[in-house]
Every structure is written in structure tokens, then in C-alpha cells.
Amino acid sequence: MAGRWLDLRWALSVLCVLLMAETVSGARDSSTGAHISLQFPASGVNQTPVVDCRKVCGLNVSDRCDFIRTNPDCHSDGGYLDYLEGIFCHFPPNLLPLAVTLYVSWLLYLFLILGVTAAKEGLGGLQLRSWPALTYSPHGVTFLAFGNGAPDIFSALVAFSDPHTAGLALGALFGAGVLVTTVVAGGITILHPFMAASRPFFRDIVFYMVAVFLTFIMLFRGRVTMAWALGYLGLYVFYVVTVILCTWIYRWQRRGSLVYSMPVTPEILSDSEEDRVSSNSDSYDYGDEYRPLFFYQETTAQILARALNPLDYMKWRRKSAYWKALKVFKLPVEFLLLLTVPVVDPDKDDRNWKRPLNCLHLVISPLVVVLTLQSGTYGVYEIGGLVPVWVVVVIAGTALASVTFFATSDSQPPRLHWLFAFLGFLTSALWINAAATEVVNILRSLGVVFRLSNTVLGLTLLAWGNSIGDAFSDFTLARQGYPRMAFSACFGGIIFNILVGVGLGCLLQISRSHTEVKLEPDGLLVWVLAGALGLSLVFSLVSVPLQCFQLSRVYGICLLLFYLNFLVVALLTEFGVIRLKST
């Protein structure tokens, strides 16, 4: 069983790559932008001059709607809603503040959707977050990294797929890197000073510095070839291999220390952390007190109602008002995920088999897949001009669900129940992709309204939104006494984000256009981003060994001050206060 489950996880990883290739390719047309842009040669084809969409606010109010509808730079083929047309054509000019308020509120809720889908569902029920040792295992740097970085990866892929929003990708990846390595890492040390593990720290920070250096060279060269994109992905594979070798070496040394009583510095958990893990595993299961003394056979309707209930009433009574208020906003998202995403949990006796709900998944989940893939383009396509694809999917799903319902029982999961993990992984990944597409389109619309570059939107709003969930998770780990694990996650996750985000995003564009990707840096701001990220890594690389790996609150405060200074410099650069002298 364990071996088959590991094979399933590796198969899901391959499925993930194929899925992202399908969701990004062929969706958008390339055109030359005025900011950081991906450019593809026109091959002698005459192109219509494109005006920067941000110039719309300088026009007369009566001309703005026509400008948005006719200017190619204002068009976005992805997503369900045209936010620029909505704000300039459907809202009166005097209600512009109301429109911006609604857009920001919807943006915050989309960030909540991204966080709940990536964190709570675990991308198909892989349940990897509950395994502490995964921080340094192959699964920790592949599946757990993808679960943590799914919003960042999909946002980068969506942004790279459109030349108008390519700046969001670089801004978000660089901005999230600076945020995580300064604010999150500094916050962990302030909450709980600790002794860092030396070898994992050096390994992760060196790999991340190499990735940043490669990206710096990529921007300097101004183009990305197929070999360069494959080099990014190859470097991540090499990183995974290195983690595996380090894990084996550590275990070999630990076995030797047990035999010869030789002291070995642990890399995964400190003694206090191991004591907490062991004490938690031996603790009394108070959930037994709430189990009924007499069991009865539930009806199909009762099983379905209980499976679709996202609220734990006992936990609700114990939690604070803040938790309850946040839970109210999360309930619609959690209910939608329960209804559309099947979860296979190998840790449960029944592997989370709920016959009525799983049969319902066979109808709803494929329907969600076709309606979210390419923003529903494939779902509404009519076969032979008569029947839409989504109708065929509903009919086939209903037939399969009927057979499954009458061929299985409520008490025993079927032999092929593990196949639901594939369906759950695919559905949850497409939910994330759909939400990430809307996030990118809203941020671009806000950039047009406020005349901000996509780079500054990426390093602020997009980076903050995608990183806030991981920040709270790492802070919670630090408060619970696991600061080493939280600190290591700061560097391990962003390595995955930048190498896979840039490498796979450019690779998909190159494979679609059959030409190299050309980059045009947005002036000084991109170099400020890259330089700040490099300086933060050099600061940690030098200061942590000087502290003998004993990280104090002073180190955390220095990191926070570094981020504040970086943010001030970035904003001053964006608004032209800091600029290069023209010669």
C-alpha cells in the first residue's frame, strides 16, 4: 500500500506539469507591451500600433470606454470578467472609488480562495502538511513545495502567458522572495530565537542565490532560450537530488551515532521539537469522549449532509471571535471545495470514502474541469455545432456515478478509490489556476487605473497576497516550538517558486511560439528588486555563521528594517524620485 501510494504521488507530479502546460498554452496572443514584456518576432507581419493602456486616464471621460474596447493593449483573453471594460464602461466616472473598492474586496477574497484551496485541500488530499519530516525529504521539496507555492506558480504561469502582465510574474517572484527571506524569516526569529541547522541552511541559501543570479543574467541578456528555460528546471531537479542525498547522509550519520554514541547535530528537529512530537503522539485522544456509545446505520442523505458540512460545531464554540469571523468568509469556499474536490486520505480507515458524495464528485468534478480549463473555452465548445462539451461531460459523469453508486457500499471503499485522488488533484489545481487568472487581471486593471507598473504591483499586492498564508503558517510553527522547520521552509519553498515559475513559464511560451522569449526590463525597478533580493541573501549568508547559527531577535529586527528600506526605495523608484540620469 505504501509503495503504491508513493507511486501515485509521483504520477500526480507528472500530471501537474501536463496540466499547467495545457492551461497556459494557446490561450493568449502575443503583442508588444510598454512595460516588462515578453516579445516574439513578428516575422515580417505588419502590426497595428499599440498605445499603452495606462494612458486611458488622461483621456476625456466620454472617450475612455471606446479606448478600452478598441486598444489591443487593454484586451485580455484569459479570465471570466473584463475588469477594465467594467470599470470604464459600466461604472460612471463619479463612482470610480466604489468600483476600485469592489475590485479590491474581490481581490482579497480571491487571495482567500487561493489560500484555502492550496492549504486546506492539499491539492487532491495528499495530506503532506501534517508530516513534519517532509521539510527535508523528497516529498517535502516536491509535493509540499507545490502545495505551498501553487498560488505563486499559477500566478507566474498566467502572468508569463500574456505580454501585458509579464511584469507581474517577475515582480511577484522577486517580491515574494524578498518578503519571505526578510519579513517571514525575521518574524520567526523574533517570535522564537533558535539554533539554525547549518548544512540545510547553506544548501538552501546557496541554491537560491544561484537561482537569483541566473535570473539577473537572464534580465541582462534580455532573452530566454529553450536551453536556458530547461536549465532552470534542471537546477531544481539537481536541488531535489541534493536534498535526497543530504537526507540519506544525515540518516546514515544518525544511525552511526546511535551505535557509537557519537554526538551528531540534528538537521530536522531539535531535541525539544522531537520531545513535543513524541508527547503529542502519546497524548490522549479526547475526541473519543464525543463518540456515540451506540452506532446506527446512517442513510444516504445523512452521509451526504455530514460530508458536505464544512463546520465543526465543537471547534466553533471554543474559538475566538476573530476565528469565527474569518470562518464565515471561508465557509462558501470550503463548501464549494467539498462539493467539487474529492479527497483520498490514506491515514483514515475508510480513506475518506463517502459513497453519495464521491458519486456526486463523478458528475460535478469533470464539469468543473471543463468549465475552468481555459476559462470555459473548451466547456462551451459545441460538438458538431449541436451539443456543448459540458452537456456530454454531465451525461457521461451521471452514467458513471450511477454505476459506482449501485456497485459499491457505504462501509467499504472500492478497489479503485485511489483514482479519485487524480480527479481531486486536477480539480483543485484548476480552481487555483482560475483564481490566479482573475487575480492577475484585477491587478493589471488596478495598475491601469493608478498608472502603476506591473512590476510594483507584483512585488507588493501579488507577493503579499500569495505569501500571507505561508507567513501565518510559519509563524504558527514558530509559536508552537518548531522555529527551525519554519525557517527552513522560508528558503526551500521560494527555490521551487522561482526555478519552476520562471523555467516552466518561459518553456511553455517558447514551445508555443517556437521562438526565444525576449525580455524588456522596466527601467531601474527590476534591478532594484533583483539587487535587494541578492543583498538580503548575502546578509543572511554572512550574518548567520557569524552568530554561530544562534539566531536572535536582533537578527530578525535587522531583516524587518531591511525590508522596510527596500520597500521605500522601490516605491520611490516607481514614482520617479529615484531615477538614472539620462545621458
Describe this structure as you would to a colleague.
Residues 1-26 form the signal peptide. It is a multi-pass membrane protein. It is found in: Mitochondrion inner membrane. Keywords: Antiport, Calcium, Calcium transport, Glycoprotein, Ion transport, Lithium, Membrane, Mitochondrion, Mitochondrion inner membrane, Sensory transduction, Signal, Sodium, Sodium transport, Transmembrane, Transmembrane helix, Transport. One of its GO terms (molecular function) is protein homodimerization activity. This protein is an all-alpha fold. The protein has a domain at 91-250 and 432-577: A middle domain of Talin 1 (Up-down Bundle), CATH 1.20.1420.30. Helix content is 67%, strand content 3%. It contains 20 helices and seven strands. The protein has helices spanning 2-24, 61-70, 83-90, 96-119, 122-125, 140-160, 166-191, 198-221, 226-260, 271-282, 300-307, 313-318, 321-340, 355-372, 389-407, 420-450, 454-479, 483-513, 524-546, 553-574; strands at 38-39, 194-195, 223-224, 382-383, 387-388, 517-519, 550-551. The strands form three sheets. The protein has a three-stranded antiparallel β-sheet with strand order 1-6-3. Strands 2-7 form a two-stranded antiparallel ribbon. Strands 4-5 form a two-stranded antiparallel ribbon. Helix 6 runs antiparallel to helix 7 (166-191) and helix 6 (140-160) packs antiparallel against helix 17. The longest helix has 35 residues, at 226-260. Residues 1-48, 122-137 and 262-291 have low confidence and may be disordered.
